[in-house]
């Protein structure tokens, strides 16, 4: 029933590609919602106002030129008329489309209107069937899996799937939501934008509700009595601290005191450490680990990416070794044999501290006596993962760290006031970061600027939203910018993204660190915690794709050393609302202020970990209402939990069912 292969035209190859973007069954497919829409209902005419806009035009073909060839490339020019205005249609490296036009016939074309030498033209415009002059959803694609495929599969799926209701009728009525089925239908087959907005609202509300509700349901914020007592040996602590290359700042010292108090108390610790990018959170986690290890218990230090956790492991293993502690590293790409050894060592109490990615949540990673878990960049993890840890030890002491400041409205709901510690300021001081917002017409100038930066011996990050080039996406990719950048500048550049092997990733980072004036072209994997002091320039493509908090994180990769640093945000000149949002980035480097703005503009998805893709939807109107929606969800949760804390009442059965289901969602997906 729910099997992907039942869909016409969907073979094992496409299924594998779908799996790689997290789609394992029909329901997942239905939930793969568009990130944006093309409005093809309006037909435009060429005018100066429309230059550089991507629009739909109706043209009449007046002449079809011969194809010319040059260095293995080809180019065909057609001349057309639209409202008596001449538009040239230029096709590069596409000999098929030009030949499909008939002289004198009319066509609907879609493309970016350009104007040069007193002439309008379109580069590689797409032909649109008259039947498709409507609102067309845009999906994230992948090499081998294009818009058309995804759309076709989804539409087919919509026709034969039962989508059960995931909200109690009381809440559906309260907000006048549409049914679950209608909601998804409106997103994939929209008649108008009002319905799209309505549907997005429901999905956002649901995400907030379930996130907050599971938090309360699993009782993460309430006090639990613990049996394993931890005695902090102050003398040993002093020796440990004297082995650091620096003295803790007074704020770090204060946070450490909070932690010591927690460790020594009779209740399990559940502490949030907030501190802006570069405020020095990691060492606090390491010290806490040391204290717990010295009391004879085990620790796990968890980070969201392999790159980050490997960096932590490499940075701190020698320090721990000085105190006779052997560190272990477990990630998705740890060899099977090594994995087995680590797991055995954990069980036999030989391995006491594990640095790990999500791998640590797996059931067969069992510790001898795990008493402390540290989750770095906690917003990258969901409630479910926390539950997995608590499963390992219900009395576990938990430290979560976040550089995306959590606005007070939210943090007070998730943690108790006394469980929040803040590291203020920066131990090394921070160099000023200048932020510049530019459209793509400045790309070459930006490249020149990078060359200049390299000549001075400083390092540059270039950040892209996708890895591969894809035909039908207007996102820039690591591959395409790599080609463009290296051929234009003649400079060498290193590449980093999630699909590389662990070795390749390490090499890229090592090379980037080692070489003077190096350039790293990367996806947002560098966002979390990568610490390279000589990096003084970061260029972010498609910056409209990210939330402000995420941009703040990315920007925090520079300004860590001695040099004054620059952040360049690139975006399409047509993205007017996004330009406005970027003003906030330009005018502030205060993480809390930016986070508060982000919450107002986009709701708490990034902070709660409900926006796992990290990708910003371009439908800005909706985001404006997210904060209100969140506030409503919060109040609903308060009411539900105070009335029925274990969700035992019949009216709450859907809620409970969804929470339980979501706790092991990956596992269930593979069963279906
Ligand atoms: P973040 O809070 O972003 O995770 P890190 O823990 O990566 O910050 O720390 C940033 C840098 O500051 C690291 O290189 C770390 O070694 C250094 N650092 C941390 N605390 C101090 C300190 N008290 N004095 C000097 N340097 C410090
Ligand atoms: Mg960090």
From TrEMBL:
InterPro entries: DEAD/DEAH_box_helicase_dom (IPR011545), Helicase_ATP-bd (IPR014001), Helicase_C-like (IPR001650), NA-bd_OB-fold (IPR012340), P-loop_NTPase (IPR027417), RecG/Mfd (IPR047112), RecG_dom3_C (IPR045562), RecG_wedge (IPR033454). The keyword Signal does not apply. Residues 262-423 form the Helicase ATP-binding domain. The keyword Repressor does not apply. Keywords: ATP-binding, DNA damage, DNA repair, DNA-binding, Helicase, Hydrolase, Nucleotide-binding. GO terms for molecular function: ATP binding; DNA binding; DNA helicase activity; hydrolase activity. Residues 445-600 form the Helicase C-terminal domain. One of its GO terms (biological process) is DNA repair. It comes from the Bacteria. This is Probable DNA 3'-5' helicase RecG. It comes from Citroniella saccharovorans. The lineage of its organism: Bacteria, Bacillati, Bacillota, Tissierellia, Tissierellales.
């Amino acid at each position: 029933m729910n099997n992907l292969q039942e869909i016409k035209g969907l073979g094992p190859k496409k299924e594998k590609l779908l799996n790689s973007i997290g789609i394992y069954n029909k329901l997942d497919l239905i939930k793969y919602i568009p990130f944006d829409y093309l409005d093809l209902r309006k037909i435009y005419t060429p005018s100066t106002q429309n230059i550089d806009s991507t629009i739909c035009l109706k043209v009449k073909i007046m002449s079809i030129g011969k194809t010319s060839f040059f260095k293995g490339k080809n180019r065909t020019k057609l001349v057309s008329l639209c409202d008596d205005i001449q538009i040239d249609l230029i096709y590069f490296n596409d000999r098929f489309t030009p030949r499909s036009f008939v002289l004198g016939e009319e066509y609907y074309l879609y493309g970016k209107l350009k104007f040069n030498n007193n002439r309008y033209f379109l580069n590689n415009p797409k032909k649109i069937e008259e039947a498709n002059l409507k609102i067309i959803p845009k999906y994230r694609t992948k090499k081998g899996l294009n818009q058309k495929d995804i759309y076709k599969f989804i539409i087919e799926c919509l026709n034969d799937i039962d989508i059960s209701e995931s909200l109690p009728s009381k809440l559906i009525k309260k907000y006048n939501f549409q049914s679950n089925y209608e909601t998804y239908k409106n997103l994939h087959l929209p008649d108008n934008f009002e319905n799209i907005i309505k549907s997005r609202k429901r999905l956002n509300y649901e995400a907030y509700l379930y996130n907050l509700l599971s938090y309360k349901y699993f009782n993460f914020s309430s006090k639990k009595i613990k049996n394993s007592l931890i005695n902090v040996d102050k003398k040993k602590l002093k020796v440990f601290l004297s082995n650091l290359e620096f003295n803790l700042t007074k704020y770090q010292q204060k946070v450490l005191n909070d932690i010591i108090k927690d460790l020594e108390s009779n209740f399990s610790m559940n502490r949030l450490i907030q501190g802006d990018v570069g405020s020095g959170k990691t060492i606090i986690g390491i010290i806490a680990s040391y204290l717990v290890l010295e009391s004879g218990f085990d620790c796990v230090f968890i980070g969201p990416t392999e790159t980050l956790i490997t960096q932590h492991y490499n940075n701190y293993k020698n320090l721990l070794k000085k105190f006779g502690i052997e560190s272990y590293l477990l990630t998705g790409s740890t060899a099977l044999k090594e994995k087995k050894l680590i797991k055995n060592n954990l069980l036999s109490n030989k391995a006491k501290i594990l640095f790990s990615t999500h791998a640590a949540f797996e059931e067969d990673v069992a510790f001898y006596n795990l008493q402390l878990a540290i989750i770095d960049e906690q917003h990258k993890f969901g409630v479910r993962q926390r539950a997995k840890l608590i499963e390992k030890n219900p009395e576990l002491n938990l430290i979560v760290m976040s550089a995306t400041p959590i606005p007070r409205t939210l943090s007070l709901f998730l943690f108790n006031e006394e469980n929040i510690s803040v590291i203020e300021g920066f131990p090394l001081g921070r160099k000023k970061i200048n932020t510049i917002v530019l459209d793509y017409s400045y790309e070459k100038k930006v490249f020149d600027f990078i060359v200049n930066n390299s000549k001075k011996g400083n390092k540059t990050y270039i950040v892209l939203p996708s890895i591969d080039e894809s035909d039908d996406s207007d996102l820039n990719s690591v591959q395409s910018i790599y080609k463009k950048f290296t051929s234009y500048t003649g400079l060498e550049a290193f590449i980093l993204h999630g699909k590389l092997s662990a070795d390749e990733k390490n090499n890229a980072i090592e090379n980037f660190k080692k070489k003077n004036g190096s350039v790293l072209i990367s996806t947002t994997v560098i966002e979390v915690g990568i610490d390279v002091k000589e990096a003084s320039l970061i260029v972010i493509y498609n910056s409209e794709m990210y939330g402000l908090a995420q941009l703040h994180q990315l920007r925090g990769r520079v300004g860590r050393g001695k040099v004054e640093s620059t952040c360049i945000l690139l975006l399409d000149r047509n993205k007017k609302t996004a330009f406005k949002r970027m003003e906030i980035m330009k005018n502030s480097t205060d993480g809390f202020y930016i986070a508060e703005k982000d919450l107002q503009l986009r709701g708490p998805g990034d902070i709660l970990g409900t926006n796992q893709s990290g990708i910003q939807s371009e439908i800005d109107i909706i985001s404006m209402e997210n904060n209100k929606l969140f506030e409503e969800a919060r109040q609903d949760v308060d009411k539900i939990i105070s009335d029925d804390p274990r969700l035992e009442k019949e009216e709450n059965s859907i809620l409970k069912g969804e929470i339980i289901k979501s706790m092991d969602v990956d596992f269930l997906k593979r069963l279906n």
